[in-house]
Amino acid sequence: xxxxxxxxxxxxxxxxxxxxxxxxxxxxxxxxxxxxxxxxxxxxxxxxxxxxxxxxxxxxxxxxxxxxxxxxxxxxxxxxxxxxxxxxxxxxxxxxxxxxxxxxxxxxxxxxxxxxxxxxxxxxxxxx
Length: 128
What we know:
Blueprint: E1 2-5, E2 10-20, H1 38-55, E3 63-70, H2 78-85, E4 94-99, H3 123-127
Parallel strand pairs: 2-3, 2-4
Antiparallel strand pairs: 1-3
């Protein structure tokens, strides 16, 4: 699923919010609990993605906002790889991808986890 909210000032620059929704079904190779319990691992991220998308109906963002729900991530990031090879919006105009793997189930916090800190121009933003 891909959706976009056009930006007002820089409509040809894109901020991507992504989440995955593929942790479903059962594993045949697991003997005990064979169910893929994806409620925390991806249902919470997709729910957050949908809430963020809804919140952008109330404001006009400066940059265009892309909402991207990926699949086949548990099989080796196949959805992400496919999008990177076949982008709907130009990657050279994509200024950020904020991926939501899962939301905390513990209630409100002031913490975030950044994978790849030091490799992005978003480090200062994340620190704030």
